[in-house]
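chain below, 110 aa
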Amino acid sequence: MEKVGKRVRKKPDAAARAESVRYSLRLFVTGISPRSSRAIVNIRKVCEEHLKGQYELEVIDITKHPEMAKSEQILAAPTLVRKLPLPLRRFIGDMSETGKLLIGLDIEKS
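prediction:
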């Protein structure tokens, strides 16, 4: 604890800090292909189970917004980009390997 004037303020513990982390994710897909649909379902499930209330997920169809794919240097789809927390990370595929995805997102340790 640290004193602030006459008030005493508790320093947040590790669990509280972990809960305050916000995840900003972008999933780039190509239309409504089976692989894209699986990626959307899989990443939403991971986010709801492990990041409930702590994430923002934007799904971008690169057939409709090719300029966004170009600006983000997306070479394959589906691709998930973790913009926050830094460092930026990319994951390619249908997001079905949940264990590897959790480790890559720094949600669970290996």
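The first strand starts at residue 2 and ends at 4. Residues 22-104 form a domain with the Glutaredoxin fold (CATH 3.40.30.10).
thats it, cya
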